[in-house]
Each structure stands twice: as C-alpha cells, then as structure tokens.
C-alpha cells in the first residue's frame, strides 16, 4: 500500500506538483476534433491538468487553446468572439491569436504599442486521428507525438469516443490494469457452459483467478496474466501501461486488436477518458467470433455502450455518462437478482465507472489490502512515482517523451504452449503496424 504522502504525489497533477510536471513533458489529448466542428465555431471550455482553458477553431481551421482569463482584467474568453484568425474578448475587444499574441487592442490609442507587450498563455495544438493534442510543457520545440497505432489509422478505419469520470485519473487508469475484475464485475453472472469453448472469454470463466508476470519496459510496464487452457497450454492476456496515462487492454486477439485508452486528468478529481480503437477488431464485444468476420462486426454493433448526456458548456459535463452517481448508475436490482447481470448496470463501461467513482474522488490507498493479482497496479504506481521524482530531483526526462516509437505496441489474448516464454513468443504479435491476416476472419 502507499503512504498518504506517496498517494498525494501520485494523484495530484496541478502546476508545480511532481506528477503535474511529469505530465507536462508529454503531448496530451485535450478534446475531440468534432467538439470544434467548423471554422469560427463557438469556443469550448476545457479543464486540463488543473488549468481552465478555452479551445477554439480559427477561420483557417487551426485550433487554439488559451487561458480562460483575459490578460487584461480577467474576463472569461469563453464569451469571446471567434473571428478572423483569433479570439476577441467581448469586454474591451482585445484579440489574441493561437500563439497567445495580442493582435488587436482597440481600447487603447491607435499610436500605442502596448499590445506588443501583452501575451496570453496559449498552448500549441495539432490534430491527429480526430483528437486535438496539446503540449503544455517547458520546451520551445515540443517533442514528437507518441506513435500510438489506434490514433494513426487511415480515415474511416478508427473510432474515437470520450467519457468523463468523476474521480482521480489514477484510480480510473487502475481499472484498466486490473484484468482479474473482468471475470467478476463484467462476467460474474456467466457460467463456463454459457461461453463457446476455445474462445477468449471461456478460459476466464473456467478459471476466474489468474497468475501474473509483470515487466518494466522502455514505455512503462507490461503484464502477462495466464490461465489454464487446453492440455499443455495457457491462455495469456497481455496488456500495457504506457507513460504517462495510457492503457492498452487485452480485450481482443493479440496481433489483431488496435486499441489505446488515454486517462487524461482534468484536475485532481475529474478525468476525461479517450478511447481509440479499430472497431473491426473489437473482439471483446463478440461472442467468440473471429476478428474481422461478419459475425464479429454484427456483435460489436449490437453490444450495449455507455450513452452520454447532452454536452454541457461548463468545465465538466462534456461527455457525462447518462448512467451516473445521481441515478445509481441506472442500477436494476431485478436484473441483478435474476442472474441476467452480475451488477444490474446497463453496460461494461458503466460498471467500471461505478466501482471507480464509488472509491471517492481520490482513493485513500493507505487503507487498501493488495494481493498477488494486483501486481500490475503496484508496479505501475512505482514506475510513475520513480519517474516523477527523477524528473523533479535530477531533471531526468521520463520514458517515451523523446522516443515516440516505443508506443508501437499491441495488446490482447493469445494461447501459448506452457513451455513457451511469453515475451519471446508474443514479440511479433505485440508489434504495432504489422498485419496478421491468418488471425482475421
């Protein structure tokens, strides 16, 4: 378990905190591109790493991200006029471009050069894979974007969704790294005979506990969780934590699944979750269908997904789950008691959200009791704290910042002979941007 001091250092991400400073070394997903649907469209409030920011799309289509408070007298730029390549404060007409430069100051005399002395805090933005990325760090020239396969697929071959969590980013991330819970929270009502033998879900129902192997990598931490399969074989679930807040979960077939999930801190008690995937290989939503097959696509399309409320223009609520704490996550005790659902909640995403938010806004980890199945969570926490402290004390750049290629990873499930070394046997399957037609229907 962590001490209270360790927990604070792990979870707090505001400016000046050791974890906040670590986060600012990386490019950060800020919002979905379609939140700014057209040039000169209305601005959007964005809470990111504890800062209140305003996003807007200029006349030429570029994205700006600037401080909320106008540098003049602090009025909110959310009410600003988005026009002619800049955002104009409605209070006194001061206008700023995407770099934060004041390009017009009509409230001052025409001969004044005061506007050249005023800048707003603004962060550079780029768009890739329908996500607006921003760099909030100290470098004049930002590092390269991470080479995350699910965010680099051709147009029309990927899917991006977003959802807010009303809890700290670490406990939201930890839910993705806890593979054992799948056999209980999501499948506790199912019996082995209800699953198709030989499918990935079948092995977890036959043997709900798993054994773990974890390793530190040049991008973060990976694990292999294995269970008995057929004679002389194991079913392995291979997944990753990638700095500073990404997970690649083992919900599909290793070698086929293209997925990444970013758990981006809005502030210490709120998280926005970006889910990037290739929908054709979402094998977690199929009833044992082969990835890419017509059966798999039909099952994926029919699977229940979390529904969001109409978007709010406030700092929170852009992607709020319709099933939330205010309505007990639409808990249906009838479904729970009938055995048709282990939790009585409407979908997997909501189940995850309910348990992580129920821990409180920031979980008191010094009260927990961890077992061997928590090995990945323990190692992830340790790696984050070690990297954040090394940056704070010695200025050591954290993993992955200057090595975008280390993010070229895949996760998923695979059956291996019991004699196999899981790392060696999966090396080719874990490599992104490599096609395996023999695994696709």
In this structure, how is the largest beta sheet organized?
8 strands, antiparallel
Global Rg: 23 Å
Strand content: 15-25%
Helix content: 10-25%
The CATH superfamily name of the largest domain is: Naphthalene 1,2-dioxygenase Alpha Subunit, Chain A, domain 1
What's the CATH architecture of the largest domain?
Alpha-Beta Complex
Averaged pLDDT: 92
Based on helices, strands and strand pairing, what is the structural class?
alpha+beta
Count of folded domains: 2
SSE order: HHEEEEEEEEEEEHHEEEEEEHHHHEH
The number of helical segments is 9
Spans of at least 5 consecutive residues whose pLDDT stays below 50 are: 283-287
The number of distinct β-strands equals 18
The end-to-end span amounts to 44 Å
Shape: globular
CATH topology of the largest domain: Naphthalene 1,2-dioxygenase Alpha Subunit, Chain A, domain 1
| CATH hierarchy class name of the largest domain | Alpha Beta
